[in-house]
Design brief:
The complex is a heterodimer of chains A (258) and B (256). Chain A is an alpha/beta fold and 258 residues long. Chain A contains 9 helices and 7 strands; from the N terminus they run βαβαβαβααβααβααβ. The mean pLDDT of chain A is 92. Chain B has 256 residues and is α/β, with parallel strands linked by helices. Classes of the chains: A alpha/beta (258), B alpha/beta (256).
Chain lengths: 258, 256
């Protein structure tokens, strides 16, 4: 995919960037000229993702951060700002998407599961936004939160995940209203991408009849199909859109995706 | 003949406001109603009001923030009336200190309080009621959400996040429980209650509330409770997973 320097001179922080969607976003951002701080709880995938970007000629650093450890979020964001001078773009992508954490029917789901999904998702995202705010204010900024069609549609057996992801979208809307005066846009993207996490979910069979099929008849490729939407929303071109949800799902949510 | 003859309804946060209005109307329509509330005095008053009108009601003290207390309180209601057919998850910690917060300054403790008192407590309540509803092959769950979440009103971050999580739980539960004859819907009221008056008086809403084409706030008894009644009654059996905006049209075109 040809790069056109849409993010030249920008500094981006991507959480959960070691693999899957987060890694794809970080790579596309770097290819578009951004300096990218990759946050991830897993050292090996993180190091690999950073090396990949560097070998493509991009600017990247890796910072260990498990967003479920809420106290570690601000130091990680500050470290990114120290290394690259500021933060212009924050992508709150990290979320505990292990099957045990995200799935649970309404009937059997535990309080602990719900609390854990709220912490690693919307609560961690708010803290990351708070930590990034002083930097984002400097020259206008972008926040992109990850929602999910699972929450938009309310798919069966994904109660804790669906609840947490819809709280993310509410966070987006409130923040969009409050931060517009600083030139900061806040939007949500709901991706459907062929990642190891998504494959594990599909193979578990728990989605079965739930999954809204794409008219394209295939899942999106994280880097070539889905990440470009993140580039657009993060770029200057999207400066007049805020508070919205963008479905990056190959049309799987036509007519219900908002 | 009442619309809810022979049914047992449980309403949380039923001491005043929308919860009380809903409990009263359900009782008038023939339901036996269990009222849950954390405040004993308004609860007693609401129960007495219903009884004075010839309705069947029992009051059970329950603060939904004490998650361990939710199940026992509901089972106590089921013991009193034999089962639970209709659950209205209306309780929520509406204190300004908890529900109001900006993105830049809201605290983790606020978010946790709002998630616990809203969506988490509602799921626990639903889980407790479900065996009764499954046994009957019939059930109605109504979750009280908010236009504040649907629209994402500034200054109400904790409340907005919790209410949208509740709407999401509504959709998931609707899909999962349809095979058991249980419908699950959300209602977003804009009502003239003590709480909403307090919120408006605080000025924190600004002009965000939006004017309703109806040009007035809804009255809990006449405007809001009848919408919950419809969703609780037999005529709504084919409606599930949806959000009904009980707001005089304030969210035309944005309300879903």
């Amino acid at each position: 995919m040809p790069a056109s320097g849409k993010l030249q001179g920008k500094v981006a922080v991507v959480t959960g960037a070691g693999q899957g969607m987060g890694r794809a976003i970080a790579r596309r951002f770097a290819a578009e000229g951004a300096a990218v701080a990759l946050l991830s709880r897993s050292p090996a995938p993180l190091a690999e993702a950073v090396s990949l970007i560097e070998s493509d000629g991009g600017k990247a650093i890796g910072i260990r951060c498990d967003v479920s450890e809420l106290d570690t979020i601000k130091p990680a964001i500050d470290e990114a700002a120290v290394r690259f001078g500021t933060v212009d773009i924050l992508v709150n992508n990290a979320h505990d998407t292990s099957q045990a954490a995200m799935t649970g029917g309404v009937e059997k789901l535990t309080i602990a599961q719900m609390e854990a999904q709220f912490r690693c998702g919307p609560i961690a995202s708010m803290l990351a936004m708070q930590a990034a705010l002083p930097y984002l204010k400097r020259r206008g900024g972008r926040v992109i939160n990850l929602g999910s069609g699972v929450g938009v549609h309310g798919l069966a057996r994904f109660t804790p995940y669906a609840m947490a992801k819809e709280a993310n979208r509410a966070l987006t809307r409130v923040a969009a209203r409050e931060w517009a005066e600083f030139g900061i846009t806040v939007n949500t993207i709901c991706p459907v991408a062929d990642t190891p996490g998504a494959r594990a979910t599909l193979e578990s069979g728990v989605l079965d009849e739930n999954l809204a099929p794409s008219p394209f008849g295939r899942m999106g490729d994280a880097e070539t199909d889905v990440a470009p939407l993140f580039v657009f929303i993060a770029s200057d071109d999207a400066r007049y859109m805020t508070g919205y949800t963008f479905m990056a799902d190959g049309g799987g949510s036509i007519d219900t995706g908002r | 003949m009442g619309l809810l003859d022979g049914k047992v309804a449980l309403v949380t946060g039923a001491g005043r406001g929308i919860g009380r209005a809903t409990a009263r109307l359900f009782a008038r329509e023939g339901a036996a109603v269990a009222l849950l509330s954390r405040s004993p005095a308004p609860l007693d008053e609401a129960v007495n009001l219903i009884k004075a009108e010839g309705g069947r009601a029992v009051g059970i003290q329950c603060d939904v923030l004490q998650l361990d207390a939710v199940g026992p309180a509901i089972n106590k209601a089921a013991e009193a009336f034999g089962t639970i057919d209709i659950l209205v998850n209306n309780a929520h910690d509406m204190s300004m200190a908890q529900k109001v917060g900006q993105v830049a300054t809201a605290t983790v403790a606020q978010l946790e309080n709002q998630f616990r008192s809203g969506p988490i407590a509602s799921v626990v309540a639903l889980q407790t009621c479900l065996p009764y509803m499954k046994r009957a092959g019939w059930g109605r769950v109504i979750n009280v959400a908010s236009g504040v979440g649907v629209r994402g009103i500034a200054n109400f971050l904790p409340y907005a996040m919790a209410k949208e999580a509740l709407r999401s739980a509504t959709r998931v539960a609707a899909r999962e429980l349809a095979p058991f004859g249980v419908t699950v819907n959300a209602v977003c009221p804009a009502a003239d209650t003590e709480t909403s008056r307090e919120t408006i008086a605080s000025g924190v809403l600004g002009n965000a509330a939006g004017a309703s084409p109806a040009r007035r706030m809804g009255q809990p008894d006449e405007d809001i409770a009848p919408i919950l009644l419809f969703l609780a009654g037999p005529e709504s059996h084919y409606i599930t997973g949806y959000t009904y905006m009980a707001d005089g049209g304030s969210n035309i075109d944005a309300a879903r």
